[in-house]
Specification:
Layout lengths: L8 H10 L2 H11 L1 H5 L2 H4 L3 H8 L6 H6 L4 H17 L13 E9 L2 E10 L16 H10 L1 H8 L3
Antiparallel strand pairs: 1-2
Amino acid sequence: MKKQLFIEESEARKLYATASPEFKQMLETTFGKEFFSMKITDRIKTYEDACNELGICAQLEVTLNELGFTPDEINLRKIKTITEALNEGWKADWNDSSQYKYYPWFKMSSGGFVFSSTGYGNSVAVAGSASRLCFATRELAKYAGEQFTKLYSDYILYQ
């Protein structure tokens, strides 16, 4: 008797990390070896990608609007989801003053709202950088700032 197994991509990645060699081979045959070797920044290009990575359903903006959420609240939810996905399980430890916590930095220029740089903090939260929006590495903060500038802009500049 033959049975089929259906598995979400996010679950396949989780299982792959601790799978036996035989099961890894089966997963690679099903999804392709490159699927498991992709960097997180290659996998997360949109909010929907972040939801898929975390195995959650993308929020329905219409429903949230009907519930009274404002556009900046919806955008913050999206940024938090993207941050969680890009960090791949890393969470800032605010009790560890030697752990750097990186965040994207933006500025207003003649070209409008633009990604400027990345910053970091050890144990101090800087106004304008929320602890749940920190990244494990400078590279991830830079990527988020450049890839999701519009989303950050829509959140920060909402009036």
